[in-house]
Amino acid sequence: MSSKFRVMFMAASVCCGLVLAPVSEAKKPKKAPETPPPAAVPAPERVTTVEGITEYRLANGLRVLLFPDQSKQTITVNITYLVGSRHENYGETGMAHLLEHMLFKGTARRTDVPGELASHGARPNGTTSWDRTNYYETFNASDENLRWALDFEADRMMNSRVEKKDLDSEMTVVRNEYEIGENNPMSVMFKRIMATAYDWHNYANSPIGARSDIEGVPIERLQAFYRMYYQPDNAVLLVAGKIDEAKTLSLVQEFFGPIPRPTRTLPSFYTTEGVQDGERQVTLRRTGDVQMAVIAYHIPSGSHEDMAALQILSEVLGNAPAGRMHKSLVESGKAAGVMNAGVQNRDPGMILFGAQVLAAKSVDAALTGLIDIAEKPAAKPVTDEEVERARTQLLSDIDRSLNSSERVGLMLSDWMGMGDWRLMFLHRDRLRAAKTADVQRVWAHYLKSSNRTAGLFIPTATPDRADMPAAPDVLALVKDYKGDAAKEVGEEFDPSVANIEARTARKKLPNGLELALLPKKTRGGQVFVGLTLRFGDLKSLANLGDVPSMTTEMLMRGSAKHTRQQIQDELDRLKANVRINTWGSGLYAGIETTRENLPAAMTLLAEVLRQPTFDAKELEQLRSERIAGLEQQRSEPSNIAYTAFQKLLKPYPKGDIRYVDSVDEGVADIKAVTREQVQRFHRDFFGAQPAQFAAVGDFDAAALEAQVTQLFGGWKAPKPFTMVHSEYFQVAGKQQAFETPDKAQAFYVAGMNLQIRDDDPDYPALAFANYMLGGGFLNSRLFGRIRIKDGLSYGVGSQLSSDSFDKTGTFLTYALYAPQNLAKLEQAMKEEFDKVIKDGFTAEEVAAAKSGYQQSRSVSRAQDNSLVGALGSYLFIGRTLQWDADFEKKVLALEPEQIRAAFAKYIKPAEFVVMKAGDFKGAAAAAASGAAPAAPAPSAPPDAAKK
Fold first, then answer.
1. Against a cut of 0.90, is the pTM above it?
2. Is the same domain home to 738 and 783?
3. Which of 42, 255, 442, 768 could cysteine-pair with 154, CB 3.0–4.6 Å?
């Protein structure tokens, strides 16, 4: 677990998996009625304003937060209910999360929730944690969409269908989600630690719940839970983005105001966890490939003043590369990586540290090393430098989030669960004020052996215990809180193709570097830039193994002027986030920062790209991390099946840069990389010709162009670049199953290569057919049948990839499922493909999908981080966004028969390569013995990451 697995202090949550892609559906909903609220309903009361967010309260108790941000072309509506797994009773674990799923089933007025979301181009989801449940949708800013969203949330607050027939299908969806977590040893380890650390409090129970409770909860208890907690006086509604505050408040009053204030009394929960009085230990023995050691300690409630110092301490000890655990365990080779995490909740939570240990190493030594660092605060007191480094990083993370009205809205839900949304700002202020002595004090008080898991009872005459202070009165804490001055607001920006093109300047430097610059005023002066470097050719990149990717991943680990930690410190000081991603013959470097910090961030990026030191110790740490990451995937069904699938469809020879490695081959390649190879690769291949640079946000275009020219304009690589093309392979159909013992979740992938390019006449129809079949939105055919109707999969869909240069692409379909459901899954897949090939889609389906498709593309263009990537990519391809607009016109002009014909022409299920991985023998044995049902009912899909 390297630092990239670091979890910030916040409540863990489980979600209903509806978020990866925009949704669409079969029926466009009727326009919401515009009935004004009764005149007798009192007007909303203004409560307070903090940094641009204003709270109002309706007469029925609903709290309303409005956060106008005219620089966004989107609106996010987020409603948080102050109920989570903490409120569940015996036999009800997981019920809050199960109910979260059920609220997507509709109301008397809404029989097709996925369809409504799709027709408005919304990006929705819901998440459940210990203290709260939230639902949100982000959509294109318009009065019609805002009216719909508020009407939608008001309707399902009180009128959702919570019926037995829906529970029967959705239960297996949630069970499938539970099974996904059971495949992950770290997820199971976390559940075991929480269950061991808490004797009485409900935080001992994961929000996903116990399998038996998920399967057996009576519908009557679920309905009673809904009626008790889903009420206006137990909810906080937030509307953020491009809104008119007065008009939005009026709409909120129109739709939520008539809901009566409930007469029931919410139950009070009085259970507090007793002080832990000795080490506790849990041992997990399961199938897996990488060892882990984790320690955890009780900490106060999320609103307590000690939390700021504890969060800083967590970074000082557990972050990488400056953290003490990284330096002691990773740099010495005892561990492949370390992690730190925190559960910051309404009631006292936990702080956790962990180490990932390769099979050949001692996990006991790693555990001892973690404890020695965590529980000896006096041996090496925390320093001012460590505190400032951690503080700067944490405040930088918060500041970047505050620049996004969408991120702020979602982030506030956890703070609402802790007592009040203003706690987020109060916590930030406490981070600013925390002293080194505060960090040392909380270290000594909370991180001690009697407060750690260990499972042993040792009598002692003088017990040394970590008493938990009482949770403070949150309302008293935030009562007159004002916060900082509101951030500067950006301009109102139209994300249409015409406006983007009119505002974008393009230029080519003498060395071949191309520029696309789109300056605009943004909230907080936010700016995104992206630089793509391309190197080598098919011949010069041959037989290099993992050298190119290791070279690229080493860039941020030390330069001529800065160590790895100094690079991170400088980025935190600049409130900048830099990510460098690589593929076989190139890399993409992205920066998120602010206008005033952009020049320095650009200078630092140029330094790490052009002057890396390739420190030998850092190379060994990276090698261990990479090997551990691969080893973790060795027994994972999804990795086994997908790797086999890719190897068959892309049969490039070993040594080719496009070759698909197995886990064993990948490990061997990583082990073979030397520092001299990495240095030579950088010297021979790195340069800015050709290269593409794009920027979107608040910047001075002339100054940025001059800086890019100065930093990269004369940078040339000795070895020339020639694009490595993709080849089309006609591959015969094949089916293969892989056994993965003791894995509750199985994986299915099927597909074929296509001889098509993205500018072929058939491509718009084929792409749209994939979009409607299973391209990631809620109301796709596969989603509707396999997740919603049959409940066989938590994650199901299809993907279509194509090339802009070569006539080659891939179509695939995938599903996560329980292994005993394989036959039902395959039958459902066959039937849905046959229907599309034979009958196609109805005119009504096509019309509804077009509406959602068009709006979702507008939402995507409104995201600056996505837009900067598109502008840079099109520089290389030789396109502008007008190509997108033309493609969209072609899609919107399609007739149903054109879509069906294109799908039938290219997609041949009889020729699919099909790979399946799971514990099929175990499932069969369980079914034969009666230990498990032979064919469980419905399940639900996580959205698989798009390539």
1. no
2. yes
3. 255
